[in-house]
Queue: 2 jobs
Job 1
Amino acid sequence: MEPQSAGFKTEPLSGKVALVTGASRGIGRAIALALAQAGADVAINFLNRAESAEAAAVEVRGYARRAAVFQADVAVATEVQRLVLGVQEQFGGIDILVNNAGIASPRRIEDITEDDWDRTIAVNLTSCFLATQAALPGMRARHWGRIINVSSVAAQTGGVVGPHYAASKAGMLGLTRAYAQRLAREGVTVNAIAPALVETEMVASNPNARPDHIPVGRYGLPVEVAQAAVMLALNGYVTGQTINVNGGWYMN
């Protein structure tokens, strides 16, 4: 099949449905809005901030796109199944899955507990596996899908949160490559984005985060991560890659 023209439609993702986990604020919210601007309908997942999630849905609808909010703890298998089923029933399917939900609990090495480890791995990594497994059957049946995993520069450098966080985010990169390799011929791409110190509540609450860690000398903006997510949603030839949106902290 011949490649499509490089010229883009005004709404190149029109007719597509995106599920963004952890989309009530920060990077997830910015990605949800950017996908809506590109024409996608958006399912907004949240855990605790219903009001913020509803506000994000209102913004999505402002782009004349459909939006709905879905409360679920994506670290729990039964809740993920309920979430995906709910999105499929309301929107007809999931074309784009953005695994963005995550937590960061800054700890000194000697202060990391087993509970810290287990919860961080569950929310940041297990959730990615659970949501991918649940959304994949529909994508494979349609021979079209985009899975975008929001990892972190911590996966590449160790970061400023702690080993528990770095390990969870590094696991996402391995998961990304493994799925990408197995799905490449089925029309489903799987990629990761690795941001560094983006202006969010998560970074603001981390006493170890400083803009002087970043070569460009400032924190990133959520919209700058969202731009990378839209590119990955549009491109069917990029798969198994990690897009570094990090101000030059990690270069490869």
Note: The chain is about 45% helix and 15% strand.
Job 2
Amino acid sequence: MRKKHIKKQYYIDEKEDNLLKEKCAKAGLSESNFIRAYINGYKVKEKPDETFYYVLRNLGGIANNINQIARATNRDGYLNNRSYNEELQKVLDFITDIQEMYLMPVKKE
């Protein structure tokens, strides 16, 4: 059975309709969910671009590798310097990538 049983109808003009559709598309929400979020006091944000998910996946992978190194170190009683240095280099390279994506100026064409 449907939890939400009150139907609302409203009229908006073409400009408002286009604006609503645009904002819903940017947020990745349906019109109903967008309006519900807004009236419940949420600030609806734009859905992040693919770069955000790339960064998130890479951070997760690096964290997993560091955790595996820590577990092996605890288990074996010594640190594998080669694995540690490889992961450290990944972290440093990743920091450089993030800086280039978000902080470095891009030449206009």
Note: The CA atoms of residues 63 and 87 lie 9 Å apart.
